[in-house]
Each structure stands twice: as structure tokens, then as C-alpha cells.
Amino acid sequence: MSKLDEYQMKVVNETGHCLVIAGPGSGKSTTICEKVKTLIANGTNESEILLISFTNKSVDDLKKKLGSDIFITTFHRLAIDILKYNKINYQICCDTLLDYIIEEYLMTIKNKSKLCRYLNIPELDKGKNEYISFKKLIKTFINLFKTNNHDIDSLNNIVKDYQDKYLLKIILDIFYLYEEEKNSTSSLDFDDLIIIATKILNIKYNYKYFKYIIIDEFQDTSLIRFNLAKTIIDNTGAILTAVGDDAQSIYHFSGCDLFIFLNLHKYINNLKELKLVNTYRFSQELIDISASFINKNPFQLDKSMHGFTHINKPLEIIYYLNAKKKFKNLLNKLSDKKILILGRNQKDIYEYIDKDFEYNNGILKYNNKEYKYLTIHSAKGLEEDFVILLNVSNSTYGLPNKIENHNILSYVSSKEDDYPFAEERRVFFVAITRCKFKTYLMVPKNNPSIFIEEIKKVI
Prior knowledge:
Helix content is 41%, strand content 16%. It has helices at 6-13, 28-41, 56-66, 75-85, 97-108, 112-119, 129-147, 152-158, 162-184, 190-203, 223-236, 258-262, 284-294, 323-333, 422-432, 450-456; strands spanning 18-22, 49-52, 71-73, 212-215, 239-244, 272-276, 278-279, 306-307, 315-320, 339-343, 358-360, 363-366, 369-375, 384-389, 435-444.
């Protein structure tokens, strides 16, 4: 067994239902793997353990650590397995169908200037950040609407604001077109699979029996995903271990709802809450800064985390008038360091590079060195010695991104996300906690992010 701290050992040895609140760098994956190994060592058959994670990548990582005999899967692949087990035929729709319908619909809008005024953007041209963010806003609304069982009639009744009604009509038109297209080809999307799988098991439970269900990245659970897991728990008596961090819930656009994480005790009886409070990634100073920032939202849980190192000024604000020049200077200064470059959007990198750089598919080359550039969402779970965060600006698609977190989402979000820019605050938290030593914030001097004023007070 790997050497675990006392908080990790409590999770490994817990025999009942538990919610494990695991902050960044707290050894979450190590703890999960040791719990699985301990269950098997104590006589549990590998086939009696179901381990669910959020992405295919995280599933693959867990399989490498635990082997292929344990059922390690995503919610979508679990739903597919249930349908196959029950000999249900299905056809999955093209995963770009919704994107295609959104683009086709937006081309038909005659008064685009009205929409741009409402969104407070200069234009809505395909390929630009504003267009990409608006598409993401529409997809987020539809995913939240669908995965959290909202009703169209009640939605129309509660939306009173004229401008919100205007945007709601656009989104619902697209939603109807999407559902009609799927129905015309008798095809399902991944969320449909989860809903149908849950209905099948509720009618008659004909599936595998599990003694233990472990859900990784539980903060990214939606209502329909949780309902599927709860149905299996209710029918098999399985013990649930849910592991995650509410402060790292940043997949709102896929339908995730933080309400489930924060209110799990209302769904699971005799639930014990455990915390992994030691971080092995970064300094106590960064713990204190990041906690002060994220806990401004009263719905976020206080973790009182502990670090084992001390670093003076683990966050540094780099103000600039010339983005390209300042970025080069910083890379030159850190030329002997291991660096991860992050941005809120895929296209943020282009503001900072010129002919002296080569950039292709997330790989940036400069002065005979290679750097990885990722969006913050893609970097979740990763770490590096030093991090450079780009575009910490007060622009529409800066940080916070004001289109993707438009007020329209409040109609399909739980009250836990009512705090201003709640999700963008978590996105920023994830970004600054990827480093082992220091994160540099690239901030336009004439247009700094609203988050910078907060950060300046605590660094």
C-alpha cells in the first residue's frame, strides 16, 4: 500500500456511504485506488465494484493504475452497457448535430445587430471568440435544461424580462429543431441513453449487482447521471463513495449541477462527510490566497487545507500594454523552467504570439523550446512547476467570460450558482492551482479582470 495520510486512510477504511471533499493536489486518485485495492484485499470480488469517472481520459488513467478486471467507466458508457445487457437496440446521433443546428439557425437570424446588442458584443462572425462563446452558451442552456429535468411551460412562465424572452425563444427554437432531427432518424444523444437506461432499471432491475460504487469527480454530476447511480444503489444496496471538489466544478456547459454535490445527504441516508485536507502540490501561501478568493461565494465549502511548503508570492500579476512583448519577456525570464500555458479560450494564445513563434494543435515553439497551451478546462487535473495564465481581462470573453455565463442560465441553474460569476470564479481557481511553485497572471493594464482587484488584496 502507498503511504497515506490520516485523512486518506479514513476514506480507505470507511465502510459506509461517504462524500469525500478533496481539494486540489490532495491525492484523490491515490486514495481512490487504495480504497479499491483494500476492498479487494478484504474479500470483495472485483466484479462487485463499479468505479465511475467523468471523462474517458480519467477512466483510462484509473484503468492503468487498477487494471482492466474492475468495471471502470463513464456514465455514458455505463448507460450503453445497461442497454446492451437488456438487449435494447439504439442508434447514437452524430456528436456534432447540435453544433450544426446552432450554426444553421444563426445563419437565418435576420436582425443579428439586435442579438449582438443584447449580448454586448460587436459582431457574431463564425470563428471569432464571441461566436464560439455564444454557441457554448446555447449548448450549456440546453444541456442544463435537459439533464436537470426542466419543463418548457414553467420556464416560459418564469422568464419575464423582455430581452431574456428574446434569447430564450432562440434557444428553444434550436432545442426543438435538435429534438426533431433526432426523432426523424430515431437516434439518441448520450443524455438520452442515460435517461432511458435509468427508466429500464426502474421498471425492472435486470443488470449487474454491485457492493460498492465509487464516483470520481462527483462535482461534475448532473441530476440524470446521479439518478442512474441512485437507481443502481437502491436496487443493489451498494455502498456509495462520492469523491470530488465543489470548488473545481467547471463543467456547467455539460449539464452539471453543483446542487447534487452540496446536498447529497438529502438523497443518501447515513452519509458521512470526509475531507482530504492536505495538499501535496503547492504552498500554504497559495492555499490561503486561493481559499480567500473561492470562498467569497458563500455556497462553496470551506476546506481549511494544509500545505507542506512555503513560497513567497506564489501568484504574480504581469501587467502589459504590449501583450506579445511582455509574453516574450516572461518566457525568456523562465527559459530554464517547466511551464504550462493556460487560457480561458482556445484562441487566447494568438494575442500573445507573433512570427517568432510556431503554434500548432496546442504546442507552442519559441527559442528552441516547446510549451503546451491548454484551455483551463482541458488542464483540470494537471499540474506543472510554473503556470502562465493568459487573458485575465475584463473583456466579454476574458476571465470571467461574460457570454458563456450569461444571466439566461440562471433560469436553469440551481441557487448554488446564483453568486455572480460563480462558475468563472471556479474556473479561475482551477487555473491558479495547477502550479507547484508559481502562477503568472497576464493582465492588460487598461482592462484588468474584475478578479484582479480581489486577488491584489491578498497577494
